Amino acid sequence: MRRLFGSVRARATLAASVVVAVALAAAGAAVLLSLWTNLSEQAGTEAERTARTVAGDLATGKSYAALSLDDDDKPVQVVDAAGRLVAVTKDLERISGTGLDRVRPQAPGAVTGGTGDTGGGTDADADADDDSDGDSDGDDAGDAAAGDDDPSEAGDIGDASFANGSATIDGDTADYRFATVPVEIEGRGELTVHAGAPLTAEQEAVSTALTVILIGFPLLLAVVALVTWLVTRRALRPVEDIRGEMAAITASEDLTRRVPVPDTHDEVARLARTTNETLAALEQSVERQRRFVADASHELRSPIASLRTQLEVGAAHPELLDVDGAVEDTVRLQRLAADLLLLARLDAGERPADARFDLAALVRAEAGQRTGDRVPVSVSADAAVDVSGSRGQLVRVLGNLLDNAQRHTRSTVAVTVRRAGEWALLEVADDGAGVPAAERERVFERFVRLDEARTRDDGGAGLGLAIARDVAVRHGGALTVREAAAGGALFELRLPVA
Hints:
Layout: H1 8-59, E1 76-79, E2 85-88, E3 92-96, E4 111-112, H2 122-126, H3 133-146, H4 151-154, E5 155-157, E6 161-169, E7 172-185, E8 189-198, H5 200-252, H6 267-316, H7 323-347, E9 355-358, H8 359-368, E10 377-381, E11 386-389, H9 391-408, E12 413-420, E13 423-430, H10 451-456, H11 464-474, E14 478-483, E15 489-496
Parallel strand pairs: 2-4, 10-12
Antiparallel strand pairs: 1-2, 1-8, 3-6, 5-7, 6-7, 7-8, 9-11, 12-13, 13-15, 14-15
């Protein structure tokens, strides 16, 4: 189970199914509630209509016996001001929800149904002493007289209230929506009419809707899950292809291979393109590293072989030992080892120090210490140009640029330090042959020396300019070369001002 839901496709399907299930459950509950509310209101309207009809008959002066209460599915109760049941639907056997559960009249003149059957029980007989035939005749006369009056003049019908309950009529039990309507009648006091409308149709409609929901919603949920599963499988197929190709590249160590790019414009296609760009950069880095190791081995082989030869000759013939040559080869090895160590630190991402110093003062101090140069170095610098970084590394950059200029210049080397906006510029110019436009980027590659440089090289390994550019980049700047005003090369070091 854990492995199954460990896939993105399974988690996406599960999440979509859960969301849809919650939405369907909420929608189903809302539909059922709305359906029940609307149908219940319709039943309440029907019950109120029945109650107001009976109340209207009472308001016009009709006697209890003249009321039409013989509807088989609509229980009706009429209660007088004393709380006595005075009229009731025929064949009513049980009722609840109206506040009065009696189903037999309790007062003289009360009726069951519309048949004129007095049907009085023991309570009616007990209350018959005050309401004699004379009074009854008077009421009938009053009722007859009132029958011609307008209902609004004969009685006042109040607002309806509602409640749910149940009733049994002629052996059939059902749930009802009851409406209670009060009516004020002169001479009778306030009567209360309870009338019910059956909720059977409403319950059947809700039950049918619930059945449809219980059957349809799981099917719909299954369809959603299936569609999500298929869609995510199709969407993630390119990702699986990319993963498979990356695994093959890792196993074969062949960095020339590339992952397939889907013919789309979505995130997966961008992922594939970015992956291929990463592979290309990694291939270049590995190739550069291999070339670096090969070139370093070649550069180290020559001075080591020369030094070994001199030492072997010196051991066999001490009088032939070239001490100066041995020292020169040793110094060359030391410089090459230092260059290689610095490049290794730069490749490892070593961050330069965050010291702040005056670049102009640094240039003047370093140029003044170069006493063995073939051509004097002239310095032109602003009063103060502050930069931040590693003082030692920037001294190394300046030394490499001056060494390169001394090897190629004819008669002059000029250093300029100035500020240009938010940048500090250090320029080293010579009047030599310059650098051809096609070679101006290649000279910054490691172990690269142009043919002319090789003939005039005094032992450099071709790492000076590569180190200078790497240091410049690590300090947030840049190192470029262009043609100088005197026709030679002009190297420009650009650093952010502190």
